[in-house]
User: Which sequence fits this backbone?
């Protein structure tokens, strides 16, 4: 077993442990959301999905932003660790993005009366999701590790700069998405119980993000060292 | 004339000459664009939707698809005979090399668009009239941006196994802002709206061009150099 493989296994194990802890805590979030927080007056039980949808969206956007930033750093420093991290973050981001894009319509159907609408924020996240699927497809279609790292870094950087443009261009199609209620200049307009549950859920999701990224990062390390020694299979 | 501009023009000239000698790619792209227009005509219910309402989206979807087909070709010819290695060995700054490929692609996509526009007028019976200079202007403004991104992506895509599929998957999200802007401006031009209603969109298109042409020129060396 090479040094890289040992280190990879250790990182992956740590990531797996963190992810399991986060998944257990997620059960706690469900209990909290269903038992502790009050039922929203106008939306009823449908609003409960907020505690999953919003943290998943935060994590997806965090993951995608980190891919962009790390890609820029990679082209500057050429450190393979940055490339491995970007790949892991993109994969986990796509998973969280899928959660966001499935929970959203489930909520939208009873509340807006439609599964999907071409609202600014929906369109933006959908295109980000597609962009990162393309990013992963490009990675999968390239074999040379150096080439893969350079190409995907370029896509990552261009993607980061695309976000404001998509946002600007779709914003002019009037927005239907609920306006910011937590991260806004004035006080959050949410009862303290709901805010607490949301906060707990966001922390749990972030821990899950860290766990999954470390798991994926460790696995990439193991894969690489297996390829180097030629006993992969 | 600055040296890098001269080099870029030389590379673009080489690409355009090579294309004009065979003409296969150009002809296929033009025929493809015409076919897309024909298909669009049958996909529309003429009793439900008037041609003018649909015109801006038909025009821009056709332009986008034709550009995609055209861009796929940009680096395929360089790859086939190892020509790209020759280009890279020449003492040409990567920025100038990118500029040359960008200019050649713009000429190529621009030619396809120039042939498509009259066909579109013919098939959809749209009266461009006074809107024509404006439409040419917005076409230029929107095309520069997405062709710049398409040029760098096609250089990447040729290195993959599914080049023809990889380019659209990567490029389409980047085509969204210029396409939305161009469709909006075209619709307003056809409706004879004042310039003030298009200014926001035109600014967005210009900003997109500046940001992505600069960024792609800078990032190009990361794509072609080991």
Assistant:
């Amino acid at each position: 077993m090479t040094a890289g493989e040992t280190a990879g296994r250790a990182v992956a194990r740590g990531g797996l442990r963190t992810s399991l802890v986060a998944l257990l805590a997620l059960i706690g979030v469900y209990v909290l959301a269903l038992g502790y927080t009050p039922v929203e007056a106008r939306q009823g039980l449908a609003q409960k999905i907020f505690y999953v949808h919003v943290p998943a969206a935060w994590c997806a956007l965090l993951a995608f932003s980190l891919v962009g930033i790390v890609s820029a750093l990679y082209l500057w420093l050429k450190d393979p660790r940055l490339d491995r991290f970007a790949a892991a973050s993109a994969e986990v981001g796509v998973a969280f993005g899928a959660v966001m894009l499935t929970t959203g319509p489930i909520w939208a159907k009873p509340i807006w009366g439609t599964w999907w609408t071409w609202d600014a924020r929906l369109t933006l996240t959908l295109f980000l999701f597609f962009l990162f699927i393309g990013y992963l497809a490009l990675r999968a279609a390239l074999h040379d590790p150096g080439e893969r790292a350079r190409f995907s870094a370029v896509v990552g950087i261009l993607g980061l700069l695309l976000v404001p443009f998509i946002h600007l261009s779709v914003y002019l199609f009037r927005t239907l998405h609920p306006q910011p209620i937590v991260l806004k200049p004035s006080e959050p307009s949410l009862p303290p119980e709901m805010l607490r549950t949301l906060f707990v859920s966001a922390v749990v999701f972030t821990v899950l993000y860290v766990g999954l990224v470390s798991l994926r990062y460790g696995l990439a390390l193991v894969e690489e060292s297996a390829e180097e020694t030629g006993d992969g299979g | 004339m600055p040296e890098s501009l001269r080099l870029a023009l030389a590379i673009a000239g080489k690409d355009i000459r090579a294309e004009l000698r065979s003409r296969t790619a150009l002809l296929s792209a033009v025929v493809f664009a015409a076919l897309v227009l024909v298909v669009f005509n049958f996909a529309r219910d003429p009793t439900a939707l008037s041609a003018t309402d649909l015109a801006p989206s038909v025009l821009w979807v056709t332009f986008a698809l034709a550009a995609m087909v055209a861009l796929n070709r940009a680096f395929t010819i360089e790859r086939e005979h190892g020509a790209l290695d020759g280009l890279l060995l020449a003492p040409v700054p990567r920025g100038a090399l990118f500029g040359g490929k960008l200019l050649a692609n713009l000429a190529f996509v621009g030619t396809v668009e120039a042939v498509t526009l009259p066909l579109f007028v013919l098939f959809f019976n749209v009266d461009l009239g006074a809107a024509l200079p404006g439409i040419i202007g917005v076409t230029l403004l929107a095309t520069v941006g997405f062709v710049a991104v398409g040029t760098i992506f096609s250089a990447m895509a040729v290195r993959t196994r599914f080049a023809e599929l990889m380019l659209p998957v990567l490029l389409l999200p980047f085509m969204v802002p210029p396409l939305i802007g161009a469709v909006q401006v075209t619709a307003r031009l056809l409706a004879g709206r004042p310039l003030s209603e298009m200014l926001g969109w035109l600014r967005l298109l210009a900003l997109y061009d500046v940001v992505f042409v600069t960024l792609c020129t800078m990032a190009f060396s990361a794509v072609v150099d080991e």
Observations:
- The CA atoms of residues 60 and 93 of chain A lie 4 Å apart.
- Chain A touches chain B through 29 residues (CB under 8 Å).
- Chain A has one domain: 3-229.
